[in-house]
């Protein structure tokens, strides 16, 4: 196999044709139990941005991500993702939309007993006819895309290993490869490094940054650690009790900005190091 790190023509290495923007206007999200997770959130995230969303536990970060991919309905306001209105999207339209959004979770969400390759091929499902999926017949092209995705995060050699035998950092890379195999227009990462040690966490964040910089894909990452948010985001959005309390450049956000977002002084555990 050729070195796909340098291959511009290969499937997952081709810049996203038209990365997606996100437009939220006065969005409120209220869960059935009455908890208001997002309050009057208005945000314009442009195609190709690398956004860190920061806030304490319970501030609404996961709700924001689950709202953007249509898992949580908005209670009021308007939400456009990739030009599609989510407040009216249903069924098939919603599934198609999710097929274009790569999701990365803290807990990796892999099929642990399946091979690494089969986990990555899941990223091709939205592009695969149902009958092929049911028969486990992936096209050669799909396999090629999966191999390329694994190569681009440096774990191609693990393709035939069972996912459960990999380290946490390697499993998160499998999840990133699965997202890449979708050839996504948008990647949403929910606390992707919260269960990883510091060097591994930086490695995974560098992979996400590369997806953004090399492929131009819009990336939105929920983080609770201020140094990661500053280092890897170009834009910082601070959430506190469901409200946007900061929206500006990440690199120059002062400690005072983070104290506003957290609603308290900075503590040891707010920094990965
Ligand atoms: N499915 C749900 N039903 C009811 N309330 C929910 C639900 N999911 C989240 N919440 C509540 O909504 C608020 C925001 O939670 P959310 O998980 O979005 O915050 P977060 O910043 O991602 O925190 P964490 O990192 O702890 O998940 C919290 O008060 C939480 O208890």
From TrEMBL:
Keywords: ATP-binding, Cell membrane, Membrane, Nucleotide-binding, Translocase, Transport
UniProt superkingdom: Bacteria
GO molecular function: ABC-type phosphonate transporter activity; ATP binding; ATP hydrolysis activity
Signal peptide positions on this chain: none
PROSITE patterns per record: ABC_TRANSPORTER_1, ABC_TRANSPORTER_2
Domain ABC transporter stretches: 22-266
InterPro entries registered for this protein in UniProt: AAA+_ATPase, ABC_transporter-like_ATP-bd, ABC_transporter-like_CS, ABC_transpr_PhnC, MetN_ABC_transporter-like, P-loop_NTPase
Record has Cell membrane as a keyword: yes
Record's GO cellular component terms: membrane
Stored PANTHER family: AMINO ACID IMPORT ATP-BINDING PROTEIN, PHOSPHONATES IMPORT ATP-BINDING PROTEIN PHNC
UniProt-recorded name of the protein: Phosphonate ABC transporter ATP-binding protein
């Amino acid at each position: 196999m050729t070195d796909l790190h340098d291959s511009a023509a290969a499937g997952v290495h081709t810049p996203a044709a038209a990365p997606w923007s996100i437009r939220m206007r006065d969005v409120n999200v209220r869960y059935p139990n009455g908890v208001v997770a997002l309050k009057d959130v208005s945000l314009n995230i442009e195609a190709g941005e690398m956004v860190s969303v920061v806030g304490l536990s319970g501030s609404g970060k996961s709700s924001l991500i689950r709202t953007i991919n249509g898992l949580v309905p908005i209670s009021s306001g308007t939400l456009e993702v990739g030009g599609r209105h989510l407040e009216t999207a249903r069924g098939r339209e919603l599934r198609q939309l999710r097929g274009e959004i790569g999701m990365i979770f803290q807990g990796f969400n892999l099929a642990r007993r399946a091979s690494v390759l089969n986990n990555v091929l899941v990223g091709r499902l939205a592009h695969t006819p149902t009958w092929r999926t049911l028969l486990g017949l992936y096209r050669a092209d799909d396999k090629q895309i999966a191999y390329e995705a694994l190569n681009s995060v440096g774990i191609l050699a693990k393709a035939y290993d069972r996912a459960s035998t990999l380290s946490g950092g390697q499993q998160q890379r499998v999840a990133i490869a699965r997202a890449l195999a979708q050839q996504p227009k948008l990647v949403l990462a929910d606390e992707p490094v919260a269960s990883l040690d510091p060097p591994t966490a930086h490695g995974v964040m560098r992979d996400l940054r590369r997806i953004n910089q090399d492929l131009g894909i819009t990336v939105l990452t929920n983080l609770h650690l201020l140094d990661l948010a500053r280092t890897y985001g170009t834009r910082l959005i601070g959430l506190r009790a469901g409200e946007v309390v900061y929206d500006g450049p990440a690199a120059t956000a002062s400690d005072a900005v983070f104290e506003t977002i957290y609603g308290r002084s900075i503590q040891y555990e707010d920094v990965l190091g």
